[in-house]
Amino acid sequence: MGQVESWHQQVDARRQKNDFDREFLYTFPYYLGRAETAMQWLVEEGREPLLQSYDGSINHTRFSNRSWFATNERTTQVKLPLEFVYDHPARDLGERLRAEYREGRFEDGYSFISEYQNGRTLSQGTWSLIGARLLLPLTYIETIENHYMNEGTHAENRSADITNFERELAQEERYLRYTAQCLMEHLPSTTAGSWFTRRNFA
C-alpha cells in the first residue's frame, strides 16, 4: 500500500487530472482505511497465544478453485517453488474465499469453508486472519499499480482504464457484501464497523 500512497501524493499534486486520477483520489481514503484496518488485525492476532508455531503451513501464493485446474487431463500438474509460501493456513482459506466472492459465488465459498471445517474447526484467531486478508483491498491495489506503472506506455488506453476501474469498484462493492455476510457470522463483535456495511469514501 506504500506505493499506492506515493502515487496518491503525486497525482494529488498534478495540475491537470484525468478521470482515472479523480476517481483514484476520491476512493483512496476509504481503501487506505480498509488496508490499515486489515494490517491492525494482523498485528493484533500476531500477538495472540492462540496462534502457535505449528499453525504454519505451505500455502499457495494466491489460491483459487483454478489453482490445480488442467485443461488437458494428460497435462502434468507441476507447480514452481515460487508459487508457494510458508504462512498460516488462513492465507489459502482467505484467498480462496476472495476468488469465490469476486466472482459472485457466495454459496461456493460457503460450501468450501463448510467442507474444510468438517476436517478441522477454525478458531477465532484463524477467522480473524481470514478476515484481515479479505478486508485487504488487494484488487484495488493491483488496479492502481497496473495503471500508474504503465501510465506512460499506454496513454491511448486511458478510457479503457477508467472503464475497467469503475467496473472493479462496482465488483468490489458486491465482494464486500459477501465478505461482510461471512465475517459477521463468524466474527460478530469484531466486524460491527462501517467498513462492512457501506462504501465509506471520504
Written account of the structure:
With 202 residues, this protein is mainly α. The chain has one domain. The protein is built from 7 helices and 2 strands; from the N terminus they run H-H-E-E-H-H-H-H-H. The chain has a two-stranded antiparallel ribbon with strand order 1-2. The radius of gyration is 18 Å and the shape is globular. The C terminus is likely disordered.
Classify the helix fraction into a percent range.
Answer: 55-70%
Low-confidence stretches: 197-202
Query: Structurally, how many domains make up the residues?
Result: 1
Question: What radius of gyration results from the CA coordinates?
Answer: 18 Å
Q: How far apart are the first and last residues' alpha carbons, in Å?
A: 18 Å
Strand-residue proportion = under 5%
How many strand units? 2
Overall shape: globular
Our count of helices gives 7
The largest β sheet comes out as: 2 strands, antiparallel
Arrangement of strands in the largest sheet: 1-2
In sequence order, what are the helices and strands, one letter per element?
HHEEHHHHH
The secondary-structure class comes to mainly alpha
Mean pLDDT: 79
